[in-house]
Design goal:
Number of domains: 1
Radius of gyration: 20 Å
Shape: elongated
Helix content: 10-25%
Order of helices and strands: HEEHE
Distance between the termini: 43 Å
Largest sheet: 3 strands, antiparallel
Strand order of the largest sheet: 2-1-3
Oligomer: single chain
Structural class: alpha+beta
């Protein structure tokens, strides 16, 4: 049986990393960082949006900014035709 991560990748999900800056509830002038990583679908990012909605609803630290990086891990193989023979000794 395949893992859920591999199944998601086959369905088009890619590895998404979000760098979240938020303000401390007791000291709003101080920013704290949090890194979130999961498999998600670009460009809508439903998993990340669900997590951010949970954050806004349940946690006290207001969000300052979110930077997102996304990489599809399974993609068509690259093939380059090569003319000639290479011999290694």
């Amino acid at each position: 049986m395949a893992s859920t991560a591999f199944t998601k990748q086959l369905a088009g999900y890619g590895l998404t990393t979000a760098h979240i800056l938020y303000r401390l509830p007791d000291h709003p002038g101080i920013l704290q960082t949090y890194v979130w990583q999961d498999y998600d679908l670009a460009p809508r990012f439903p998993e990340l949006n669900d997590f951010l909605a949970f954050w806004r609803r349940e946690l006290d630290g207001p969000l300052h900014s979110v930077r997102v990086a996304h990489q599809g891990l399974i993609r068509p193989a690259e093939f380059n035709a090569v003319d000639g023979i290479v011999t290694l000794h």
